Amino acid sequence: MLKQIFSRRTAWFILVLGAVLVLAACAPSAQPTAAPQTTASQPAATNPPAPTIVPVGGATATLPPPTPNGGIVFHSSQFAPVNEAELMRNVILKDAPLLVDFQPQAAGPFVDIPLAQQKAGKVTIALLGGVHGDFPAFIKAGLMDDVTPLLNKLSDRNIPAEYVTLGKMGTDKQYYIPWAQATYIMAANKDALQYLPQGANVNKLTWDQLRQWAANAQQGTGQRVLGFPVGPTGLIQRFWQGYLYPSYTGTTAVGFKSADAVKMWQDFKELWKTVNPNSLNYNNMSEPLQSGEVLIAWDHVARLKPALEANPGQYVTFPAPAGPKGRAYMPVLTGLGIPVGGQNRAEAEQLIMYLTDPKTQTLVAQNLGFFPVVQGADTSNLPPGVKLEADAIATLLASPDKLPVLLPVGLGAKGGDWNKVYNDTFQRIVVKNEDIQTVLNEQAKLMQAILNETQAACWAPDPPSSGACQLQ
User: pLDDT, tens digit, for every residue of 38-56?
Assistant: First the structure.
């Protein structure tokens, strides 16, 4: 099964991105504009305590840099949870050819800090690591340097052409080097399989079958055992944006207040009756899965990994359910870019070369659950929990009804506000039981204001737009 995923050119993700290359037509202009006003300042790095994690793949953990702010600054929107940040500092970056100050940030500060440094005329960040949709705001501000010469030096990595094209953001310049890739899946304790509706297949579920399954499990166990990461740092916004909405509406934003969206929220309110109420506090689904508080869960592969690794024989993994418009899912492509005027450019290039080395990419797959983007990474000996995830992804990509959905593109520092629109919509409709259409109409105004302010064009699967994306 793994050979279907990790071929010589990581074929599983090429299939995903090949379906969404319409992004090139939707990408915003890369012409520099003035950086937005902000008062954000760069926080001091905080080094974690001695690691309590156990790395795999032959790696040995090391203590973090001995002093705050030591080494070149690696500013990232990825691997921010404490355990993931520890793994980055103490395992992945352990054998880097230079000292690295890894500084993961939440969505808002990730954008605000570099732009504030640019405005101040002193960019101390050497390397930026983020998802594809993080970069347009930096490009629009003229912050991102062209890394085409570096890409040429990395020709032996054999990064798929589709990934390279996305890194150009619709221009003739290379704004980021592809770094790693991931997605979101579902996992279930095998004890829950006895409650599957008759004739249901976990690999081909519909949303109605998931509701029936969770209701059966609730009746059988006396508990609500379906869970979602709705907590303060959970990734539930990606569930609305990349899974539930497009599976019902065929869009991620354009159909936000449509009749299909009303039906979707009606159905989800019914599903929520079977969801563990503690989901409002879950930041990741690994812990409630391991405790048995939840038997069925949706989350990012990196956040499910601890549970799957702890007891791989106890779980099954599978794609999220399909709706009327297809089996929507959100591929996550991350990239590495260098800011204009950033300190230590030569060292930043060294770090990119290290992070795209097949051996490092192998460590990332084994320890963090993000999969390689280069040829030569050794995926023949994945930990059992990561293999479970890889198998679920292979099943997803073989689904005839799959519907890929890009992460939000071009929102910049407004990404947090964008997520809040979706999360507040859930709170008002599902938790507070407000009228669905009224809420959608009001929240759509906030959404459109963000699109107008950022001039973000529509992204797949929404149809391409000229100028700011417009809701229907």
Answer: 333 333 333 333 333 445 5
